[in-house]
Amino acid sequence: MAYEVIEVEFRTELHAHWSVFFDHLRVPWVYEPVTFYDDKGSPCTPAFWLPKERIWFTAEVQAPAWWGRFAMAAEGCDEWLQGWDEEADRCPPVDVPKQWRGMTLLAEGPFFPEDVPGIDSWGRPDPWSGPWQSYEANGMRAYDDEPYQWTMCPQCGLFGAEFCGYAERLSCDCLDSDEHAKVANGSDERLLAAYRAAMSETWPHEADAGQSPTLRWPTVREALIRQPGATAAAGICAGACRPAAQQVRQDQRHPLTPQESKGSGTLCSACPGFVCGRCGEQPTAAADVPCRTCEPVVLLTENQARQHLNGAVAKLSAATGTHGRRINTIINDSINVKTRAGISLAQLGAALTNAERWLDDLESMPVDLSAPVDEDPDTLHGPELRKLLTTYVGPLARMSGEPIPSTQIRLNNWMGVYQRGEASDEQLRDAIVQARTWLKDPGSYRAYIHPEPPGPGGLPAPVQTKNAAADTSCVLCAAAVAAGELVGRLPRPREPYVPMVWLCAHCLFDRRTSPRLADVVLRVFHHTFSGSNTTPLNTAEAAVLLEVLLPIPLTGDDEHLQEAISVLRRGLDDADPVMSLSYYPARAAVSALHAAARPLDALSGDVPVLAAVTQHLDEWHHNPQNIGKDAYRSRTLWRQAVLKATPAPTVLSRQGGPFWV
Q1: Contacts of 125 (CB under 8 A, 6+ apart)
Q2: Angstrom distance (rounded) from CA 539 to CA 458
Q3: What is the 3-state secondary structure (H, E, C) of 377-427?
Q4: Residue 656 contacts residue 478 (beta carbons within 8 Å)
Q5: Environment class of residue 251 by beta-carbon count within 10 Å: exposed (0-12), middle (13-18) or buried (19+)?
Q6: Those residues with Cβ within 8 angstroms of residue 178's Cβ, 6 or more apart along the chain or in another chain
Q7: Which residue in 60, 164, 285, 525 has the most C-beta neighbors within 10 A?
Q8: Closest CA to 291 of 321, 271, 265, 266
Q9: Rounded to whole angstroms, what are the CA distances from 101 to 53, 56, 159, 189, 438?
Q10: What do you get for the CA distance between the two ends of the chain, in Å?
């Protein structure tokens, strides 16, 4: 069964709101199915017929004069209550055939209440307050009583209308009238939800469309109906439905054979559609389908359709063991949209149709998302590269069993960006090549997702390595890297640390196990600017730093430098795997190294880095730019700002940071 969009025309906006109320409760209704006439031939047209409850419901801002006489006839009463309504008493009797008789209700006044439906001043459900509170009679009128309210059985959920909303009077008999007396359930949460849903629906007003506000125009409501062919039937209807067989008999052209009579019994003589086989007066979607007057079909609002679709997604997820996010992606793919925000009602109906069809036959649901396109990324740029990379997300997620968003984040992390739009063409091309590699070798992707922890004092495994395409420099140690040499990237650090791009082979593999002096100095720099009060060093790093500090002559005023040497020497003697230098000893060690140029003669490549670290530590210590802390949410962001505001840029300030080293 397919969902289609159908338009229903209401005489007033008030009627349209009440139709949404009934639909939200799944109560079938027929709008103005028949017009009755009084003895003088004047029409009486009640708004809604609820066939299941056999209730005539009339909703008007002001009660029509004919309603009293109609109510008496519809309920089969022979006597009129004199004086109940003098204006109605003067109306002539109305003829209501037996098949249309039932309970009558009149809701007089606007739909919108002044307060929240059914909630008293203490925030509790109030059976005496609700949309009916603005009606003159404080409720709905029946033929001979008031006030009536819509109510529901708290046990079985049967819907109906009873005096003061007393649920024990409903026909289900779930409540014993002796034990459960006066159960006023007119503020049942399901009813309140239906009132809110009806109140939230809006339609364009005539004045907004440029029409005269003094004229009365119908309100057209769009909704989804689960009846294939309903939209086409409504579109071709000529408004003069009549079975073709009846027309043929009237014309008396020739008698029909039984087979011909059966075939033309539901064909319309005025249009190429069908006529209801029961009433012979209304259009229908197919030959064997009754019209919506004889057998009303509940309509779906957009909100209801979305709720139904979310429920179908949950059922598909449970039945197939597939994550709900992927089910949503498959549904969106089926209607050619990326997101269901702002889609048309027709697209929503198509999505709901697909989801319910897959529920009936799980094997019919597509299991593959967008297949990767075998295209050369070197010939693409910008949006074309991002679109190509997107085709690998679904297969990677399916291969790893991860949700689509997690796979998206992993690809972004691999490129070193927070959002796909920040990636350069080179990063996108590298990601596409790597995604293809992962698909060919799933084990490599699992190793990337769950890397083995590094050994003591070691580094995590690089997430990417390649040969440099041109001469460049390491983003961490600023060492020169010639074209063709190995470069790579480490995993993305946690925020607010800045991701590092391309590192030299030494920083990728040997910086912690076979450190140079510049590596140790950089650890002091980045830990200081990250907000840490100490710099942790492993045994190899401590040995390098102590070796260059020992030849420096000490004076009595170098207490912080002496402390640094003592900490390093004691840690090495005790074979501590990790030793920590606090801020002042670490800064004193860097300053002493910078002042003593002779020990660094053989390490000329480290001199620019050492000078830059010394400068920035001094700037950080004195904060000459006077950058306040209050404007930043963390010390790391504040110290990043201090680094960027340096009056004398260096190789380090140009690289940024702090980095997670």
Answers
A1: 118, 119, 187, 189, 192
A2: 11
A3: HHHCCCHHHHHHHHCCHHHHHHHHCCCHHHHHHHHHHHHCCCCHHHCCHHH
A4: no
A5: exposed
A6: none
A7: 525
A8: 266
A9: 11, 8, 19, 31, 72
A10: 61
Q: Round to whole Å and give the CA distance between 125 and 161.
A: 18
For the chain, the residue count is: 661
| Burial class, 652, CB count within 10 angstroms (exposed 0-12 / middle 13-18 / buried 19+) | buried
Q: DSSP strand E in 266-317: where?
A: 274-275, 283-284
Cα 224 from Cα 231, distance rounded (Å): 10
Contacts of 360 (CB under 8 A, 6+ apart): none
Q: Hey, what are 37's tokens?
A: 């006439």
Is cis: bond before 496, omega within 30 of 0?
yes
CB burial of 62-89 (b: ≥16 within 10 Å; e: otherwise) equals ebbebbbbbbbbbbeeeebeeeebeebe
CA 393 to each of CA 7, 371, 420, 422, 489: distance values in angstroms, whole numbers, following the listed order: 40, 9, 12, 18, 21
- pTM value is 0.53
What is the 8-class DSSP label of residue 268? B
Query: How far apart, in whole angstroms, are the C-alpha atoms of residue 308 and residue 356?
Result: 10
The pairs formed by 255-258 with CB atoms below 8 angstroms and a separation of 24 or more are none
Which amino acid appears at position 33 of this protein?
A: P
Closest CA to 30 of 44, 7, 12, 46: 46
pLDDT at residue 260, rounded to an integer? 46
Give the sign of the dihedral formed by CA 45, CA 46, CA 49, CA 55: negative
Tell me if 567 sits within 8 A of 534, measured CB to CB. no
pLDDT for position 371:
56
Q: How far is CA 25 from the centre of its chain?
A: 25
Give the separation between CA 220 and CA 396, rounded to whole angstroms. 47
pLDDT at 600: 45
Going by C-beta distance under 8 Å and a sequence separation of 6 or more, which residues neighbour residue 569? 546
pLDDT averaged over consecutive 10-residue blocks of the chain (661 residues)?
85 93 93 90 92 93 88 77 52 84 89 51 48 49 85 92 90 80 86 88 60 60 77 60 57 51 54 66 67 78 91 90 82 86 90 92 75 75 87 83 83 81 87 87 80 66 82 85 89 74 87 87 86 87 90 78 91 88 90 70 64 85 75 80 84 81 77
Neighbours of 271 (CB within 10 A): 17
| pLDDT the model gives residue 463 | 76
Widest Cα–Cα separation across the chain: 130
Residue 282 zone, left/alpha/beta (φ > 0; ψ -120 to 50; rest): beta
Instruction: Provide the CB-side half-sphere exposure for 316 (13 A, CA).
Output: 30
Q: Report d(CA 464, CA 206) in Å as an integer.
A: 63
Helix or strand holding residue 556 (H, E): none
Q: What are phi and psi of 39, to 5 degrees?
A: -65, -20
Sequential DSSP letters for 558-619: -HHHHHHHHHHHHHHHTT-SEEEEEHHHHHHHHHHHHH--GGGGGGGGGHHHHHHHHHHHHH
Tokens of 478: 């600023």
